[in-house]
Amino acid sequence: MSELDEFKATYFDECSELLLELEEQFAAIQSGERTPDRLNAVFRAIHSIKGGAGAFGFSALVGFAHAFETLLDHVRDGRIEMSVEVTGLCIRANDIVADFVTAARNNETLPEHFGAEEKLRFDALCAGENVADLEGELMEEFDLDFTPVRVVLKGDTEPVYEEPDADRFETLPFQAMAGHWTVGFKPHPALYARAGDPLLLFRELASLGDTHVRAMLSPMPVLAEFDAIGSYCAWEITLSSPTVTEAAIREVFEFVEGDCDLTVTELATTQPTALPTEALAPAARAADHGTTLASQSSALSDLVPPAELTQKIDPAPALPKSPVAAAPELARPSPVTEQTPAEDKPSEHKATGVQSIRVDLDKVDRVVNMVGELVITQSMLTQQMDETLRAKYQELVRGLEVLAQTTRGLQDSVMSIRAQPVKSVFSRMPRLVRELAGKTGKKIRLETVGENTEIDKTIIEQLSDPLTHMIRNSADHGIESPAKRSAAGKNETGVIRLSADQAGGNILIVVEDDGAGINRERVLSVARERGVVAPDQQLTDEQIDQLIFAPGFSTADAVSDISGRGVGMDVVLSNIKKIGGSVHVRSITGRGTRMTLRLPLTLAVLDVMLVKVSATPYVIPLSSIVETIQCSRADFGRVPSGGKVLRVRGEYVEVIDLAERFALPNEADTTNRFVVLCETDGSTKVALIVDDIIGQQQVVIKSLEENFERIEGIAGATILGDGHVALIVDVQGLKSMVTHRTAA
Amino acid sequence: MRVLTVDDSRTILAMLRHTLSGAGFEVLQAEDGKQGLDILRNEPVDVVITDINMPVMDGIQFIKEVRASGLYQSLPILILTTETSQDKRSEGKAAGGTGWIVKPFEPEKLISVIHRVVH
User: Checking CA distances to A719, which of A164, A250, A342, A506 falls within 20 to 30 Å?
Assistant: First the structure.
């Protein structure tokens, strides 16, 4: 991808975001929120779209956006009222801008008069005011500056710019050109206050021709009266060049106009252009002064009265600094000595580099993995230190503490490389809420908090669907209709609050609404009806609330268009579990519902339970474990087919002996073994029998598929702190293996 | 030489970076005036290029705060804007801006304007 294409890609991405924002802002404006902030925001957005479009030469887009922007500017200034009609026009114009952007992105050409009608309306609206004449002129000048500059890339690196009017400042007729000019320049203190620097001006003048600069020191006060930020020095510069114009000289002083007294006088009499300038100009001057001249520059140096501080200025950046020129610079933080500019500059240029680099995500992942391992090794080392060792090797203990600290720091920095603010997901939600409000006829406001909370990129990518679903659920089932809300004494507008926060090693994402809360009676009766809950089963309020995540559960009387087609909140749960997170719901009747997503900071490190099966270590993801039971206390039973089952609170769960499954020698004595009760996707349970439970820890996941085939029932491997490799048990995979076999 | 670029448009920031780093400048980026101030507090900067229309803190306020801080009286600040109307320029100058660059900028012009305000 060439650099220009990359810029374009950035620009189109940005446009998409800006258009989305515009849509939101106009929607708010349409609903009556005509706040200055919103008007400024829409103006800014159109302005940005236009700015980029100009750079890429999308002239049709520039033209339209410019007219649109002008209208918005008038609205912003209060010259045009943001009436319902104007708002409507703006919304339509917004769509047109979007079409222009799409066309530009796809290299399509829109009909010539596309958007012309709206543009005319803009112009008519803007011209409708009394100051139209003045504005019109200004705008024309404005338009000129918007002549798009097309960027053409030669090869792939060197940008070449086709400048439509490169000699804009040198277009005066030849007749006006004379050889010699005197420039009188006295800066006001304001010039220095705005970081203006006379030396730079002289340097620029020197690029126009031969210059001699003379400092006028007379107004310099005695030291006691000297104001460090005052301006005392004035300069007289003589400039000689056969081609320079007054406009070109004044152009040099463009930025300091008004901040100095400036006089530009032509010394030589203007000569007819037919005559060779090189001979004429000096000769004319020489005649006036009665001096014989050898060359232009020597002529000039003689013209200027001798002064203590006359200097010849070279166009080169390396300028010897005069003591006087340095005087106004006393207040500067970086004093410039005589030699430094020449010597420092090149090295400065060499030392410069880019502020960011592009790195392959794979490389980052590798670093993340290795840091994960380092963290685990470090924690293992720390755990190895018992009291006796601690007393014996104090230096080692201290070293380990430093290692722990550094490792944590390293982990944080590495994680931040891949972290992205949740904003990228959150920003899609306002539009969703607006659509939902429109469809349901409810009034809903979305509040977002903690948009800048950063989460691992891989997690963010998988967050969008669950969040969308949760918000849909809140809007559809949580928030009541305006009538119901007022009847309940609530504000007609319901609020859905979306927040993100980091708590310890987790990210919490909370979706809460101030709606009616979960209707537990109904949830329970539906759950019983659908067989999700046994008829005689007693559940706590919290358990009932969690039922909304049960597979196949949906309380909507008719499958609504909004909360999906028969796909319930169970999808949210399984999606979140897939990325190692959990969902919790809490509801207060009449007050609202809060759903909390707890997510790991990263996917690279997994919380596991370390177990042993026939003296071989295995790890089971903690997120799938419900509980562990000693075998001696477990209530086993047999089903007619010969399979073993475990009875847990009235529920029969299939038992898998891991030793058997992985063809390892079985331990004879089963009483000391353990049952690890796991829950798979869709909350079916499976009981795994292991020989020993060693403990809980974090591991880094290693894929086996790169070097081996995919192994059923194994999700991957990890290296333990002591160097042993442990396989990660894939509970879901084990379960389907069993189901498969039973079926066969 | 280090240039701090302040603009809420990623496109403009990217193009500035391209042009400036191509000319040997080291480029720092901020998306609004507030971020710009944060960078100035922590990093040495030789010249600032700032947009006017920005969320959070606009360019005018940014320039005012830079000048008011006392530390950067002589830091050249160029206003980067498409607003060519005289009042925007004067407003920028009144706030303490050193000069201006009109968007869309031509790379050579951009570099020459920077050399006009910085050694």
Answer: A506
For this complex, say whether ipTM is above 0.90: no
**pLDDT one-digit tens code per residue, B9-47:** 888 888 888 888 888 888 999 999 999 988 888 888 889
DSSP A216: E
- How many whole angstroms separate alpha carbon A652 and alpha carbon A650? 7
pLDDT, chain A, mean = 74
Q: Which residue of A has its CA nearest to B5?
A: A355
DSSP A646: E
* Strand residues in A295-351 grouped as ranges (E): 310-313
Whether the Cβ atoms of residue A353 and residue B26 lie closer than 8 Å to each other: yes
CA-to-CA distance for A573 and A464, rounded, in angstroms? 13
Torsion of CA B16, B20, B26, B29, to 10 degrees: -10
pTM exceeds cut of 0.90: no
Amino acid identity of residue A469, one-letter, is H
The residue type found at A240 is: S
Residue in B25, B69, B103, B111 to test binding to A, most A beta-carbons within 10 Å: B103
A54 — contact with chain B (CB < 8 Å)?
yes
Alpha-carbon distance values, A710 to A376, A619, A704, A715, A738 (Å): 26, 17, 7, 8, 17
d(Cα A26, Cα A33) in Å, to the nearest integer? Answer: 9
A123 vs A115: CA distance, rounded Å: 12
Phi first, then psi, for residue A332 (nearest 5°) are -75, 145
CA gap A547, A321 in Å, rounded: 80
Instruction: Give the residue from B1, B77, B82, B102 with the most A CB atoms within 10 Å of its CB, the best one to mutate.
Output: B82
What ranges do the domains of chain A cover?
3-146, 166-351, 361-420, 422-600, 605-743
Nearest to B82 among A40, A50, A341 (CB): A50
User: d(Cα A564, Cα A555) in Å, to the nearest integer?
Assistant: 12
B42 forms beta bridges with none
Question: What six digits make up the tokens of A460?
Answer: 């963010």
DSSP reduced 3-state for A437: helix
Backbone angles phi, psi at B61, to 5 degrees: -65, -40
The fourth-level CATH superfamily of domain A605-743 is SH3 Domains (2.30.30.40)
Place of tokens 């008038």: A74
The CATH number of domain A3-146, selected from 1.20.120.160, 3.50.50.60, 1.10.3300.10, 3.30.70.100: 1.20.120.160
Residue among A614, A626, A715 at smallest CA distance from A661? A614
Is A541's pLDDT higher than 60?
A: yes
**CATH fold of A422-600, please?**
Heat Shock Protein 90 (3.30.565)
Nearest C-alpha neighbor of B71 from the set A334, A25, A477: A334
Out of B25, B100, B107, the one facing A352 most closely (by C-beta) is B25
> How is residue A702 annotated by DSSP?
B
Q: Which of B86, B82, B88, B85 has the alpha carbon at shortest distance from A47? A: B82
Is the distance from CB of B30 to CB of B4 less than 8 angstroms?
Answer: yes
- Subunit contact B11:A341, Cβ cutoff 8 A: no
User: CA-to-CA distance for B119 and B115, rounded, in angstroms?
Assistant: 7
The pairs formed by A254-258 with CB atoms below 8 angstroms and a separation of 24 or more are A254/B99, A255/A196, A255/B98, A255/B99, A255/B100, A255/B116, A255/B117, A256/A187, A256/A191, A256/A196, A256/A201, A258/B93
Q: Which of residues 301-320 of A touch B (CB under 8 A)?
A: 317, 319
pLDDT 10s digits, A82-136: 888 888 888 889 888 998 998 888 888 888 788 888 888 888 888 775 333 333 4
Per-residue CA distances from A442 to A407, A595, A631, B41 (Å): 51, 21, 55, 47
